Amino acid sequence: MSQNNRSSNNLVVPQATAALEQMKFEIAQELGIAIPQDGYYGNMATRDTGSIGGYITKRLVQMAEQQLAGQYK
């Protein structure tokens, strides 16, 4: 990894940014977690942000499994 780019969170499909943001807000709402409107997550509990990320991952895996099985629309 280069010195200038320390983040490994680069999207393979940059056009997916809006869909992932929407999913983040939907999951946070389902979990009853308020996402800061200013975009600063420093005041959020690590447990809350981790829960959101975990559920996003879980949902993406489910979607991929369904797609592989030919069930995803």
From TrEMBL:
Q: Is DNA-binding one of the keywords UniProt gives this record?
A: yes
Write one Pfam family the protein is assigned to.
SASP
Entry-linked Gene3D superfamilies: Small, acid-soluble spore protein, alpha/beta type-like
**Assigned keywords, A-Z:** DNA-binding
Its domain of life reads Bacteria
PROSITE patterns tied to this protein: SASP_1
PANTHER family, per the entry = SMALL, ACID-SOLUBLE SPORE PROTEIN A
Q: Which family does it belong to?
A: Belongs to the alpha/beta-type SASP family.
Protein known as: Alpha/beta-type small acid-soluble spore protein
Source organism (scientific name): Paenibacillus profundus
